[in-house]
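wait is this the right file?? whatever heres the structure
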C-alpha cells in the first residue's frame, strides 16, 4: 500500500516511511492511494474473532508485506494484552438500541491506547531493523501524552518529548505523564493553550535543522496515519456485536481533532454499513457550525469540562475534505490556506454530501453535567464528560430509533473528576494499577510559549 499527501506534493510513500514521519513535507497529511473493500460475506465471517484477530484482518491490507505477518501478529497480541478487560472494547447497553463502547480499558484509561500501544511497538520494530534512533515530538490536550509515553517509553531507539498546555490538563492527566520515569522521557509544560503546543510541534516538524543529521522527528499525534488505521477496528468490533453487517448501525463520536471519527468514516468506506456518524462537539464547535450551516471559521478557544476536545481547528478534518473535494489537492490547499482569515463555504452539493454522512451537535458544560447525572440515574453507569457529550449528541441527532446507536466512550470517568463533582456525583476511584498516582514524584519543565524554547530543549536533551 502506498500513501500520498493531501496537498499533492512529493512521491507516494511506503507504510514505513509514513509511520516514521508526521506531516508530509508539503504540509499535507498522508492518506492511502486507494482503500481496500471488504464484502458483506467477508465481514460476516469475522463474527467470532478475538479483538487482535480482527485487528489483523482489517489493518493488514494497509500495511501490505512491509511488516512480516508473524511480527505484526506478535505486536498486535502484545499491545492488546495490556488492556484490563477480556473483550478489550466491551459494549454496554444503556437502553434499547442505545449502546456505549468502552474504549478506556487500556493502560492510560482513554481510547488513545488502542493506537499508541501498537504504534510504540511498530516503531520499535522498524527502528531496530533499521538500526535507527529518532525523536518523538508530540502535543497533547491531555490523553495523547500519557498514551504515547506508555506506548513508547520502553523503546531504546527513541527520545520522547511531550508538550502539554501548562495548567490546562486535569491533575490525573498531568500526573499520568509526569510520573513516567526514563532517561529518554521528557515532559514540557508550555505556557499557552493546546493549539499553541500544536503550532510549535508543526513548526518544529517543518524545520528540523535543530536536530543532528542522523536524527528525525516522528509524530505521535493523530496526524500519524498508523493511529487512524488502528482506530478503524473498534467500529467493526462493536458493529458486529449488534448484528452488522446484516444490520446497519450508527455511531456518535466525541470529537476534537477529528481522528477518531475519521476512522469511523473509513470503516464505512471500506464496507461497514454505517447509517449515521454523529460529530459530537463541546462548545469548541467549528465542525458543528460547518456541518449545520456551511460556515467554516475559527473563533476563540473555550476551556471546557471536556478538555481533550478543546481545539480550535481539527487537523484530521483535512483528510475528510480531501475526499469531499474528490481528491483535488489544489482545491484543498486553497481552502486550507484561507482558514483563520475568513469564513469559508463549500458548494451546496458538497455541503449536502457532507450532511448525508455526518450529523452534529454542540454540547456545552451545563448539558454535559446534566447528561452525566442523567445517565447515572438511569443506568447506574458513571461516564466521563467526553462520553457525556457523545451520548447527549447521539440522543439529539438520532434519526432512526430502529437502528442501534453506539456512542464511543473515550475515557474513564476517574480521569476527569472535576466534571463528575460538578454533576453532583462522588469522585470515582482510579483502577488499581494507578492507585499510587498521587504519591509518585513528578518530573516536568515549564517552558515559554515559543518554538525556540522547545527546540533548544530538545537539542540539549536528545541522545544523538
Ligand atoms: C482525544 C480525545 C477525544 C477527541 O478525539 P479526536 O480523535 O481528537 O477527535 C475525545 N475524548 C477523549 C477522552 C480524548 O482523549
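ok assuming it is, sequence goes like this
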Amino acid at each position: 500500500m502506498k500513501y500520498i499527501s493531501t496537498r499533492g506534493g512529493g512521491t507516494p510513500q511506503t507504510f514505513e516511511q509514513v509511520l516514521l514521519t508526521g506531516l508530509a513535507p508539503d504540509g499535507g497529511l498522508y492518506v492511502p492511494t486507494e482503500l481496500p473493500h471488504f464484502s458483506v460475506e467477508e465481514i460476516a465471517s469475522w463474527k467470532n474473532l478475538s479483538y487482535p484477530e480482527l485487528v489483523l484482518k482489517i489493518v493488514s491490507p494497509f500495511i501490505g508485506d512491509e511488516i512480516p505477518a508473524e511480527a505484526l501478529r506478535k505486536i498486535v497480541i502484545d499491545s492488546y494484552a495490556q488492556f484490563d478487560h477480556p473483550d478489550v472494547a466491551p459494549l454496554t447497553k444503556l437502553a434499547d438500541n442505545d449502546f456505549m463502547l468502552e474504549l478506556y480499558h487500556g493502560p492510560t484509561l482513554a481510547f488513545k491506547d488502542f493506537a499508541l500501544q501498537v504504534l510504540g511497538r511498530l516503531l520499535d520494530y522498524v527502528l531496530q531493523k533499521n538500526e535507527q534512533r529518532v525523536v518523538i515530538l508530540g502535543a497533547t490536550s491531555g490523553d495523547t501524552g500519557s498514551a504515547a509515553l506508555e506506548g513508547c517509553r520502553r523503546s531504546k531507539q527513541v527520545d520522547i518529548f511531550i508538550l502539554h498546555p501548562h495548567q490546562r490538563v486535569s491533575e490525573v492527566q498531568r500526573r499520568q505523564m509526569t510520573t513516567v520515569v526514563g532517561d529518554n522521557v521528557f515532559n514540557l509544560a508550555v505556557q499557552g493553550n493546546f493549539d499553541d503546543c500544536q503550532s510549535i510541534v508543526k513548526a518544529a516538524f517543518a524545520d528540523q535543522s535543530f536536530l543532528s543529521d542522523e536524527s528525525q522527528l516522528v509524530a505521535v499525534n493523530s496526524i500519524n496515519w498508523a493511529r487512524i488505521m488502528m482506530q478503524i477496528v473498534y467500529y467493526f468490533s462493536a458493529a458486529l456485536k449488534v448484528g452488522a453487517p446484516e444490520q446497519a448501525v450508527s455511531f456518535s463520536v466525541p470529537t476534537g481533532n477529528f481522528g477518531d471519527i475519521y476512522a469511523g468514516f473509513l470503516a464505512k468506506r471500506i464496507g461497514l454499513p454505517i447509517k449515521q456518524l454523529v460529530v459530537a462537539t463541546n462548545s469548541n464547535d467549528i465542525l458543528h457550525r460547518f456541518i449545520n450551516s456551511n460556515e467554516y471559521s475559527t473563533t476563540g478557544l473555550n476551556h471546557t469540562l471536556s478538555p481533550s476536545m478543546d481545539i480550535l481547528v481539527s487537523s484530521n478534518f483535512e483528510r475528510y475534505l480531501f475526499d469531499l473535494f474528490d481528491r483535488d489537492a489544489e482545491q484543498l490547499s486553497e481552502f486550507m490556506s484561507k482558514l483563520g482569515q475568513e469564513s469559508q463555504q463549500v458548494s451546496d452539493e458538497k455541503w449536502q454530501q457532507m450532511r448525508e454522512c455526518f450529523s452534529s451537535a454542540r454540547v456545552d458544560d451545563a448539558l454535559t453535567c446534566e447528561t452525566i447525572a442523567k445517565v447515572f440515574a438511569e443506568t447506574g453507569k458513571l461516564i466521563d464528560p467526553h462520553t457525556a457529550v457523545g451520548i447527549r449528541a447521539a440522543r439529539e441527532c438520532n434519526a432512526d430509533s430502529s437502528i442501534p446507536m453506539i456512542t464511543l466512550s473515550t475515557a474513564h470517568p476517574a480521569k476527569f473528576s472535576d466534571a463528575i463533582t460538578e454533576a453532583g456525583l462522588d469522585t470515582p476511584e482510579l483502577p488499581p494499577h494507578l492507585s499510587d498516582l498521587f504519591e509518585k514524584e513528578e518530573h516536568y519543565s515549564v517552558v515559554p510559549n515559543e518554538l525556540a524554547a522547545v527546540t533548544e530543549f530538545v537539542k540539549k536533551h536528545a541522545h544523538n
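The mean pLDDT is 95. so i think its the right one actually
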